[in-house]
Amino acid sequence: MIDISQKEVWFVVGSQELYGEETLRKVAEHSQIIAKGLDASPSIPVKVVYKDVVKSPSQILDVCLAANSAKNCIGIIAWMHTFSPAKMWIGGLNILKKPLCHLHTQYNAEIPWGSIDMDFMNLNQSAHGDREFGFIMSRLRKKRKVVVGHWEDERVQKKLGIWSRVALGWDELQNLKVARIGDNMREVAVTEGDKVEAQIRFGVSVNGYDSSDVTKHIEKVTEKELNDLLGVYESSYNLTDSLKEGGAQRSSLVEAAKIELGLRAFLEEGGFGAFTDTFENLGVWKQLPGIATQRLMADGYGFGGEGDWKTAAMVRALKVMCVGLEGGTSFMEDYTYHFTPQKSYVLGSHMLEICPSIADGKPSCEVHPLGIGGKEDPARLVFNSPAGDAINVSLVDMGTRFRLIVNEVEAVKPMAELPKLPVARVLWDCKPNLEVAATAWILAGGAHHTVYSQSLTTEYMEDFADIAGIELLVIDEKTTIREFKDKINANEAYYHLFQHGL
Ligand code: MN
Fold first, then answer.
1. Where does Mn(2+) bind (predicted)?
2. d(CA 386, CA 186)
């Protein structure tokens, strides 16, 4: 359900008329070669489309207007091969709504020592042309990514790839509809927030539905659909004996399959890319959706438990960002701790809804009591997750702004089997360590719900925060509590000023 095949970034090159035809012809020629090179890069997941060399305020305005209205254009990569007096860019940049990446590069990599002359210098002057461009963006307080280096360098292409992926996630949010099935878990604070402000800021629309809206679809499920899906369960997962045909708990699996089919039909009919539910508002559903939600997430849907629409939207956005990359992305919750004098860990999980995209093998499909909600025992997929680097991401509403909190973690193999734990789980080591990470997270007001991603890094989230114009707090190897507190205080002042039109 994630299709990025038509998405493109535009490569826009700035110059000016005074260089004359010959130089401008070369600028265009070089720009096309660079655009082709970037388009062919395996690090950049979208098309890179060469646009004209822009040489006047009206041409610049036109390309920005066109980018705004082109549905498939997810952002602009801009580069000044020559000098492009930047007052010409004010009109265009002022109205540009799409993300912008400033590629500070040069056509040639090395100086041709033996042949360099003034003609060469006139043509290859991005070293100062891009600084003029940088000034006007800073003067306009325009957030953008700056990538420096030769365009053929893999590191440069990887950075452009990261930004392109974030622009894809941003583009997705502009059209994303989140279905909030049932309201919030009663009295919970952090999963609430300003949905109007979220739509203004991120584009995402969040609207409420009742479980009965899904029940209508559950009632329409045919015998064939049901049997086909049960067949998929049987071939994709290790079913416990009691869930196999004729088993004592088979009816629970059948019920879970009906809920999946109904939920899927509801989401497809409404064009939703993400959803929430809550165990307190399940209406006549017999179980809390477990395997259904897990499989929908694996197919790319965003999800947040207990009405958590912010995390649902972020799960979806991050799934779009990492499409085609190794590793998975899931809804997650810091669940319980493993404290030892040497090192401490977090066991992350949820009641049921962890995405099998982060599973370390074939999940087992099991039915167990839930313990809360007063419904029948739900079916769920149970698995461990592989060791390796990951991030936990939380978006919270601070009342006057949104804050994005990121903690870099390293997942580790659990020290022992967990034979009685009936949920999917991940054990991780927080950077710099649990004591500092959890202190900082709590001081930042980070939620218990997160998006856990094995594919993405902090750099993606930094680009995302810049595009969205929101606050970012990172907890990594270098975090110290004293500096983190100062950062929070400084940000309070910064965002107060920013809101009043800095
Ligand atoms: Mn929860």
1. 306, 333, 350, 449
2. 34
Residue type, 336: T
Going from the Cα of 395 to the center of ligand 1, the distance in angstroms, rounded, reads 14
* Extended beta strands in 21-149, E state: 47-54, 73-80, 100-104, 145-148
> How far, in Å, from the CA of 446 to the mean position of ligand 1?
13
Residue positions in the annotated binding site for Mn(2+)? Answer: 306, 333, 350, 449
204 three-class SS: coil
3-class DSSP assignment, residue 237: coil
- Residue 255's nearest CA partner among 295, 221, 305 is 221
What tokens were used for 25?
């012809």
Supply 146's token pair: 């700056």
What is the 3 state secondary structure string of 374-399?
CCCCCEEEECCCCCEEEEEEEEEECC
Binding positions: 306, 333, 350, 449
Q: Cβ distance 46 to 164 under 8 Å?
A: yes
- Which DSSP category does 289 fall into? -
Residue with token string 């967990």: 418
On whether the CB atoms of residues 403 and 444 are closer than 8 A, the answer is yes
Per-residue pLDDT tens over the stretch 429-458: 999 999 999 999 999 999 999 999 999 999
pLDDT in tens, 86-108: 999 999 999 999 999 999 999 99
* Tokens standing for residue 189: 């604070």
